[in-house]
Amino acid sequence: MTAAKETAGGETEPWGEVTPDAARRLLVAAVEAFAERGYHATTTRDIASRAGMSPAALYIHYKTKEELLHRISRIGHDKALDILRTAARREGSATERLADAVSSFVRWHAGRRTTARVVQYELDALGPDARAEIVALRRQVDAEVRGIIEDGVASGEFDVLDVQGTTLAVLSLCIDVARWFNVDGPRTPEEVGALYADLVLRMVGAKQAPGAGRE
Amino acid sequence: MTAAKETAGGETEPWGEVTPDAARRLLVAAVEAFAERGYHATTTRDIASRAGMSPAALYIHYKTKEELLHRISRIGHDKALDILRTAARREGSATERLADAVSSFVRWHAGRRTTARVVQYELDALGPDARAEIVALRRQVDAEVRGIIEDGVASGEFDVLDVQGTTLAVLSLCIDVARWFNVDGPRTPEEVGALYADLVLRMVGAKQAPGAGRE
DNA sequence: GGGCACTCTAAGCGAGCGCTCACCTTCGGC
DNA sequence: GCCGAAGGTGAGCGCTCGCTTAGAGTGCCC
Fold it and tell me: Which part of the chain engages DNA, per the record (chains A, B) (predicted)?
């Protein structure tokens, strides 16, 4: 009642699982700051002031600046993995599932670009233990995409020489969207998602798009 | 005579254009440090000690730490642009030129990964003026690739719906190699270059590889 | 063989960093 | 109406940062 939900729109509330309200405000401020300037160029004073608090308040909710990055990275990777799993395990042909996976994964990287940027590009700033945890999640991400491609090869839908290499390329293409996507640019996340789904289906030699094809 | 050339092998001497010997050693040290830990996490003391000098020696050859990054970024972008121009302006079909451009561009990003990483991922650490200069070079990079794709569409070799979007995706795919490529990994830069050339030809709907095709 | 330009070092300055500590609120339970 | 837990602040500690300064070593020109 003191403060209403502040996020604008769309899908599930982004950082709803971060429970004390002040902790969530700090975390959102950290995501913005890390995305804009990078982890190492961001100061704890900057994060706190974006959240409307004093520098000391940060340490009531987080032990260190690195713990903030760790929490952000963990939640972000969970979300990314969830998106891919949902697409990979739905009903439909491998072609449909791959197109769905790529377009939704790309939509997330473009639409939630600030989060995705931190999640994908600040991995090296984590300490060894936290890094290992995140790397394990990334391997699961890789496995989901590889699984769809393997299904398509097995069913004869796809024509792929190097499954692991192609998986890597597909993921790389999607992830890099967080680097170049510009909110003020000419493309919407949906448009980029549709374009990329088409490009990826071409990469795997699919017989072409499920519905979105040219005439 | 006191100290021989130290680089191992291949192509043109990488930082040969940096003239006082000490300035080159500092610049090479900075490339390594920036690539490993990022610009903001690298200290001037770290750079100087990698070059075997005292911290103050850096400021004899460079005004600031940022000037070092600027010089690295400038030389690196010149090199990247040179690679693409060479491929784009050789003789041959659009298919051959695109395959050549992608495979050589990818070979550079994988083989000179440390340099490429700094060049592609530390742009935001530059000040407005230096950034503007580099962004102009990037537009030329984009224009070279777009030119080849437009040629292929005009000649009927390629089937592309969104030329600018596809150009962006091709470049994005190549650039991201600098993020994930691992020197100790299972693939050589040449293998990745060949794989990526094949994938890109598929993306543009080329009638398939010029020589490297399956049977 | 003295002067000078060039290169480099030892020492350290002011600033800003991540983080801590002593203390002050607010508020539900009894 | 008092109490303790939870959440917050202002001040500041110890440290390291980018960068500067005074001066030493070296080689080349005349």
Answer: 43-62
Question: Domain for residue A6, yes or no?
Answer: no
Q: Is B37 among the domain residues?
A: yes
**Predicted pLDDT of residue B20:** 82
Say yes or no to pLDDT of B213 above 90. no
Domain boundary among B9, B34, B61: B61
Please give the model's pTM, rounded to 2 decimal places: 0.89
Per the structure, how many domains does chain A have? 2
**Closest by Cα among B148, B75, B87 to B112:** B75
Residue A38 CA neighbour count, 13 Å, CB half: 17
Q: Which of residues 120-139 of A touch B (CB under 8 A)?
A: 121, 124-125
Domain of residue B57 covers: 21-61
- A187 and B165 within 8 Å at the Cβ level: the answer is yes
Answer yes or no: do A161 and B198 touch at CB < 8 A.
Answer: yes
CA distance B50 to B25: 9
